[in-house]
Prior knowledge:
Blueprint: E1 8-12, H1 17-28, E2 32-37, H2 40-48, E3 54-58, H3 64-78, E4 83-86, H4 101-129, E5 132-136, H5 149-169, E6 175-181, H6 196-205, H7 214-225, E7 236-239
Family: Belongs to the short-chain dehydrogenases/reductases (SDR) family.
InterPro entries: KR_dom (IPR057326), NAD(P)-bd_dom_sf (IPR036291), Sc_DH/Rdtase_CS (IPR020904), SDR_fam (IPR002347)
Organism: Salinicola rhizosphaerae
Amino acid sequence: MNRFTDKVVIVTGxxxxxxxxxxxxxxxxxxxxVLVGRRREKLEEVAASLENxxxxxxxxxxxxxxxxxxxxxxxxxYGHIDVLVNNAGVAKSGKVHEAAVEDWQQVMAVDVxxxxxxxxxxxxWLIASRGAIINVSSVSGIGGDWGMSFYNAAxxxxxxxxxxxxxxxxxxxxxxxxxxxxxxxxxxxxDLLKNEELxxxxxxxxxxxxxxxxxxxxxxxxxxxxxxxxxxxxxxxPVDGGLSASNGQPRQA
Length: 253
């Protein structure tokens, strides 16, 4: 079933992880996918794996002028924009008085400003198409983590920004939702998931007993963008194997 035939879908952070998995799923369902990221070579690798036509467009989402130029180019190329997936993100750890100020600025520039830039620049075309936005937040945006205050603050901002946009643009026919994954196998988490003690802690706290595959998050993003979710807006949907239901308590024997 090709739910996205003749639809144009923009995915940021598309060079790996959740972004790449999401792009592949949209492509399998007939979409023309615009792959956005800072590393052209990674985007080209993903484009080569897609089943449908794709457009590689490097851009830094932390720069509003680049994002505005991207949206104009996509609209001129295709004539419309139907779905925006704001997935690009970075994570930095450390206690607030120990971590570098530059780390805070980078996390806010990419994770928060990048989402704002994408939504602002794409909104006129999404209103015209009565399209959808899916932001990639995190369970860290609906709860706290030790040593991740910068990331928590950024994802918390995305969580509430998603709600606010859904309220402001519901009458325009634009649906705005977010996914809130827990630990997911990706390039960004690769080093963390090499830590056996940390992985064991995740397994004890996630009721399903494992971290997520990127494809499992991508499938939910595609659902939220689809006609099947046509009356779903303003939702921050955990994709966390039951973690948020458990309040982070370890599994009982």
